[in-house]
Write a structure and sequence with these properties.
By secondary structure, the chain is of the alpha+beta class. The chain folds into 2 domains: 3-179, 2-Layer Sandwich (Gyrase A, domain 2); 229-302, Beta Barrel (Elongation Factor Tu (Ef-tu), domain 3), CATH 2.40.30.110. The chain contains 7 helices and 17 strands. The chain has a 6-stranded mixed sheet with strand order 3-9-10-8-1-11. It has a 6-stranded antiparallel β-barrel with strand order 12-15-14-13-16-17. Strand 14 (256-266) and strand 15 (271-279) form a beta hairpin. Helix 4 packs across helix 5 (154-163). The longest helix is centred in the first third of the chain and has 12 residues, at 81-92. The protein is globular and about 60 Å long. The two termini are 13 Å apart.
Length: 302
C-alpha cells in the first residue's frame, strides 16, 4: 500500500489544492436560509463542524455539490468553479425576505481538504495558526476536514499540515482515492442530469430528518418508489489496463449496461478500478461484467 493510501486510512491525506470557489452567506438568517436551499443539515454547521451537501433543481437534479464551513460571522460554501456562477444566480433567486447576504469570496478565500482519521485533529491545530475557518467534513467515509484560508496563505497552511503529519497527495493519488471510496466529482462523474440516487450520494449528502429544501419532493419520491434506472458504482477489472472514461460496460450475456467514468490503478484492490454508471440491476455488488473485452465485477468501496 502506498504512503498516500496508508495516510487516507490511518492518518491524514492532504488533497491537491481544491479547484473551489467560495460563496459566503452572512447575516442573522444565514443558517435558516441555507437550510432550505441545500440537501444537508445546516443546523449542526458551526465553527469546527462542517457538512457536505448538494444544490438541487426543483426536479431533484444536481446543480453542484459543496463543502460547508462556518466562521464566527459567515457560512462558507466551497463549490467547483465550473458551477459556482450558476449556483450563485440560483441561490440569489431564493434570497428575498431573509436577513442574509450572499457574496462571492472566491478572489479572497481558498480551500484545503484533508482526508483520513487524523484530518480533524490536524485541522484543529493548523487553523488557529493562520486564522482559518475549519470544519470536520467527511467526504470519503474515512474521516475528513476542510479549511478556508485567505488567498496567499495556502502554502503556509499546507506546510503546517504536513508538519503535523499529513501526507501531500498528487492529483493521481486523490483520483485513486475517489474511485476506491465512490466519491464522484462534479463535471466528471456527475452533472445536472443526475439525481443524488443516480450517483450514490442520497445517504451521504442528503438529510432525511431536517425540514424542506429545494428538490426534496423529487428526491423523496424517488426514494419511496425505489425507481433508480442507473447507479454509479465501483467496479474492479482484471489485468492491469486502466479503462478510459466512456468505456462500454456489458453484462455476462452481452447486453450493454453502462459506461465508465473516472478510473485508476489501485493497490488497495490490487487491480484497476473505475466508477461506472450502470443499470440499477447491474450495479448490485458481485455482478460480473465485461468492460471492452476485460472481465470486471461490481465491488463495495474500500
Amino acid at each position: 500500500m502506498s504512503s498516500s493510501d496508508q495516510a487516507a486510512r490511518t492518518g491524514a491525506l492532504l488533497a491537491p489544492s481544491a479547484d473551489l470557489g467560495t460563496l459566503s452567506v452572512t447575516g442573522p438568517d444565514r443558517g435558516t436560509w441555507l437550510q432550505g436551499v441545500v440537501t444537508c443539515d445546516v443546523g449542526p454547521v458551526v465553527p469546527g463542524v462542517g457538512a457536505w451537501g448538494l444544490v438541487l433543481t426543483r426536479q431533484g437534479k444536481i446543480l453542484a455539490d459543496m463543502l460547508l464551513v462556518a466562521s464566527e460571522s459567515a457560512v462558507h460554501a466551497g463549490i467547483g468553479r465550473a458551477a459556482i456562477a450558476r449556483a450563485q444566480d440560483y441561490f440569489a433567486s431564493f434570497l428575498i425576505m431573509e436577513d442574509a447576504d450572499l457574496v462571492d469570496d472566491s478572489a479572497t478565500l481558498s480551500w484545503l481538504a484533508l482526508h483520513g482519521p487524523r484530518a480533524g485533529e490536524i485541522a484543529v491545530r493548523v487553523a488557529p495558526r493562520i486564522g482559518a475557518a475549519y470544519g470536520a467534513v467527511d467526504v470519503t467515509g474515512l474521516g475528513g476536514a476542510a479549511l478556508v484560508v485567505a488567498r496567499g496563505d495556502e502554502a503556509e497552511a499546507r506546510r503546517l499540515a504536513i508538519a503535523e503529519g499529513a501526507v501531500a497527495a498528487s492529483d493521481a493519488d486523490f483520483r485513486r482515492l475517489r474511485v476506491e471510496r465512490l466519491v464522484p466529482e462534479y463535471g466528471v462523474d456527475m452533472d445536472e442530469q443526475r439525481s443524488p440516487h443516480d450517483v450514490s450520494l442520497e445517504r451521504r449528502t442528503v438529510s432525511w430528518t431536517k425540514g424542506c429544501y429545494l428538490g426534496q419532493e423529487a428526491v423523496c419520491m424517488q426514494d419511496m418508489r425505489g425507481k433508480v434506472k442507473r447507479r454509479l458504482a465501483v467496479i474492479r477489472l482484471e489485468g492491469t489496463e486502466v479503462p478510459a472514461a466512456g468505456a462500454r460496460v456489458f453484462d455476462r450475456n452481452g447486453a450493454e449496461v453502462g459506461e465508465t467514468r473516472t478510473a485508476a490503478a489501485s493497490d488497495v484492490f490490487g487491480a484497476p478500478v473505475a466508477l461506472a454508471f450502470l443499470s440499477a440491476v447491474a450495479a448490485a455488488t458481485g455482478t460480473e461484467l465485461v468492460v471492452e473485452g476485460v472481465r470486471a465485477e461490481v465491488v463495495e468501496p474500500r
